[in-house]
């Protein structure tokens, strides 16, 4: 599975206003189904967002949840492990953040960082990296076994647009808080990171990855919202029956 640079040509011709209108309809339906799933307490949904710095993970999360009820929604942004997390197995901090029945949980970065960064930076031997691939596949099978659907998205921003967004963090005061010198150091190793992502897609593709064109935010949101809606529609969602002794006939 190749990571494309920029957008496939066919979406360049899309009508922006029509796509935005359709996206709004999709997001409204997602909101209704999310609330029904929360009421039913049978299924859950884990949404994983991976991507290079400035690929737009935070903004996408905000847009996707526009019509959702805050009840039943959880978001976790994974950073560098803290000392307590280092003291446990690498999936410990991940597993305790997985969604309870009825919930939608979004991971902004995820367990895949524990393969990506150690591989590029050489923190771990290849033998341990290979073990982590197998453990992640087992972990995701366990989630499926517990009626948790998993959607995995790689936000594919082109190098040119990524550079422009990183520069905005330098130029614009309201974005200064997002700036990290390390993001520019990571950019130097861009090809190394993309090679590891290719390996992740191949070795952890039992639950398929969705490669999302991410240079334009309105296209990115549409791509992701369509997949989320498709998944929610596939579930056997039902409003629970009335549980009442007082009104039982």
Layout of SSEs?
Blueprint: H1 16-40, E1 44-51, H2 57-64, E2 73-77, H3 83-86, H4 92-95, E3 104-108, H5 113-121, H6 126-145, E4 148-156, H7 159-171, H8 181-188, H9 190-203, E5 209-213, H10 217-234
Parallel strand pairs: 1-3, 1-4, 2-3, 4-5
Helix pairs in contact: 1-10, 2-10, 5-6, 5-9
Q: How would you characterize this protein structure?
A:
A five-stranded parallel beta sheet has the order 2-3-1-4-5, sandwiched between helices. The protein has ten helices and five strands. Residues 1-9 have low confidence and may be disordered. It is 49% helix and 13% strand.
List keywords for this structure.
single chain, 249 residues, alpha/beta, Rossmann fold, five-stranded parallel β-sheet, 5 strands, disordered N terminus
Strand order of the largest sheet: 2-3-1-4-5
- Unreliable parts: 1-9
CATH topology: Rossmann fold
Mean pLDDT, nearest integer? 92
CATH architecture: 3-Layer(aba) Sandwich
What is the strand tally? 5
> Order of helices and strands, N to C?
HEHEHHEHHEHHHEH
Count of the separate structural domains = 1
Task: Give a quick precis of the structure.
This protein is α/β, with parallel strands linked by helices and 249 residues long.
